[in-house]
Amino acid sequence: MICEVIHLTINMNMSPEQFVKFRCRRPLMICVCCLSALLSFAQTDDFITEIPVGEIVRNDALISYERNIRRHGNVKNFTYVKIGSLARSQKEGYLELRIPGREKVITAKGKSIKYFSEKNYEWIGKTDEDRGTVILLANKGLIQGHISTPDGVYEILPAPADGLYTLQEIENLRMDDVGCVDFAAKVGKEKSSDKPIKEGFQPSGQRMDPCNSQTNPRVLVLYTAKALALAGGNVSVVENVAAMGITQFNSTVNNSGVQSGAILSLAGVAPIGLVEKSSISKDLDTLIASGGAFLLRNIFAADLVVLFTDGNYSGGDVRGAAGSVTLQNEKSFAIVEIWAATANKTFPHEVGHLFGCRHDGHAGSPSYAQGHNISNGLFIVDRTMMSTHTANGSNRLLNFSNPNIKVGGKATGTVDHNNARRMNETHSIVGNFQPNPPGAFNVYLEGPSYVASEGQRTYEMVYKCGSGSYSFSWEYSSDGINYYATGSNSETLDWYFYQSQTLYLKGTITVNGKSYPSFMTVDAQIPNFNRSGASEPITLENQSFETYPNPTGAIVKIQFSIIKSSKVEIDILDQAGKNIQSIVDDQKPLEAGSYTRDWNTRNVPAGVYLCKVRTGTKTMIKRILVNK
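Now predict its structure.
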């Protein structure tokens, strides 16, 4: 009997590179086993599951929580949900989100994934040709999510009951409105910083960087009693909102061609005794003049301060204000309504002002430090982070304006609208508003994040502020969750790219008994053409090629089929693409048929290898994971 298995994906115990496309001409029992394996490894969980209303026990805490949600009019509707396992909900780096009451499934591709455990991760994915973003954060088991697409904006927030969350849909006509107070009249009166503008951080190219002070900007998040009450009295919820706001800002930096020196870190979260008045401008003046706020800023060595409030300013239409857009150290304070901080992206917007970025159409110096709106010729469809609000409910991108960056095929800026350029000029000034704290040990990965042609690329662990004996390890993944050892134990990793793929790398340094992992996502877009130059692509109909078992620690079976007489060569390469062994180098052509050759892995160290089969004009490559 004949059965076909298409796109068989093997996970945790199999190599994530085995995207198999083959025709199975074996007894039915074997094919059923293959199908059973496919089903057992498929996505098993929905990440978001609606909880029926009848199963909710509405106590006083939930009733107060619901009242607070409805009070501002920012939320169109909300649903109680439970959140599933990220590891079981995603598949090969893709996550499908099913929103209750919505037919269209949101499919996000993971672009930046830092996964430590189910209780501690950061998952950032893109949707709709990069016009939409999904951010999921887990901290000590508490999860928060932000889902922003051209079709709608949703927030996942913890409810005041164990394991219970709300999925909140943001009102369409408010989802793009950060509610920033109009400061255009103030701009001309502000005095710019006297400090010279310098270029930002540049990688040193050394594996062990000098241990300098922490120069990246640091933000202190303060909160009022009313803001804490809106968070259900749970400081952890306030901390999560702060973490999400910072992640939104840093994602915007990463998406916009801004140097890594602008990446923001959290200096701390603390309460302050400010009581909200009816005017956000008055509250901002009070905050700037507050000796307590300045004292906390100094204690936490923070360059910027953001205060979370629940002031319901102008009936909720004003949600944020910044003390300065001209780099004034003494006015580097902002107010953000906590309920709009991430839902409306008010937090990253106001922090953008403190970096010297302005709204679109607001005059000032330099002239190009303005946001940008993207239209389809009739009305605005997308707006960058610093743009102002219009009434058509357009989509707000996690992008600062930059004419060199496109989203959905359209530039996100012009020569006269380039906030990314402004941030590249100012982040070093912002990062030095306050004395920089001593450096702490950290590690990050250097290497190309985009690959457009076949060949070897080198990745490197860069680290600083450590002492002692170091050990190194590299792992790779096709989904950012399930990692496999590469066998490399040096500071560098050579990786051979031969096909289009998203590769997730994890480099870990262990020093003094503690491990420090760092993550990197590599997008490889390699044209699919035959090495000989022939136009005919590799298809199931003209040849097949499999390796099993994979992973293995002993003998690997290399099975291939040819449909016409052909010379066959089989080589084993290391992960850098260097030939280490030839399995078959037949001088005479083989007749049409199926063949099996063995590769004994006992004499090679554990790691990742490439099996390359050449048959006539075709070259096919598969990865083999050798475990010892």
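The longest helix spans residues 235-255.
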